[in-house]
Amino acid sequence: MMLSVLCKLKKVFLLGLIVSMVGCASIPAGAERSPQDPWEPFNRSVFEFNEGLDAYVLKPVVAGYRFVLPEFVRDGIYNFFSNYSDIYTALYNLLQGKPGDAFNDLVRVFVNTTMGLGGLIDLATPGGLEKHKEDWGQTLGVWGVPSGPYVVLPFFGPSNVRDTFGTAADLESDYLFRLLPNVALRNSLTGLRVVNARNTYYEAGDLLDGAAIDKYSFVRDAYIQRRAYQINEGRDDEDSPIPVYENPYQ
Length: 250
Description:
Blueprint: H1 2-22, H2 40-68, H3 71-95, H4 99-114, H5 136-142, E1 150-153, E2 157-160, H6 161-173, H7 175-179, H8 183-200, H9 202-210, H10 215-233
Antiparallel strand pairs: 1-2
Helix pairs in contact: 1-2, 1-6, 2-8, 3-4, 3-8, 5-6, 5-10
C-alpha cells in the first residue's frame, strides 16, 4: 500500500511541477504573506490552474447537472455519498481514540442504509445522530504529525504536506474509487462524486467570485484555520467558507 501511495503522490507532484514550469504567479501588492505558505508563488500558479479548470469544466458541468436533475434527486445523491463516507469516518474516529463517535457513525450508516433507501434519505441527522467528517489527514494530525507547509494540489486544491499524504491514503483505501471491480461503474461513480461535491458549494463559489478580496489568501487562511480547528477540537464544519475545492474523497 505504501508504494502505491507514494506513486500517487509522485503523479500529483509531477503534475504540479508541470503547472509550475508554465510560470509562478506573482504575489499581488499588499497581499498578506503567511509564514505557513513559503511556496506561495508556486501555490498561486496551481491555484490559477484549478480556478481555470473550475470555471471552464466543473462549473458548466454542474450547471447542467442542476438543470437536468431536480433538487430532491441531487439531495439523494448527496445523501448517498455522505452515508458512504460515514463508514470511513467511523474508522478514522476509532483510530483517533473516539469510540463513542465511531459507534455513532456506524449507527448512522445502519439507520440510513436500512431505513433510508440505501442512504438516499438521511434519517439519522433529524433522529439526533450527529454527522461527523474525518479523514486520514485529520487522523495523522491527531496522532501528532505536524502539518508542514501549505500547498495547493492540482485538482484537489488547498492542502499541506501532511494532508497531501492523507489524501493519497484516502484515495488508496477508497472502495468506490480504487477497489470496485467494475471499472465502468467505478469511473461513473467517481465523476458523479466530483460533480456532487462541487454542487454542494455552487452558490457559495459565486459569492467569493464577486467579493473584493484576494481569493487565494482567503481560501488559504480559511483552510489552515479550519483544519487546525478540526484536529484540535474534533469538529466538523460543513459550513466551510472554502467553496470550490472541497475534496470529495475526504
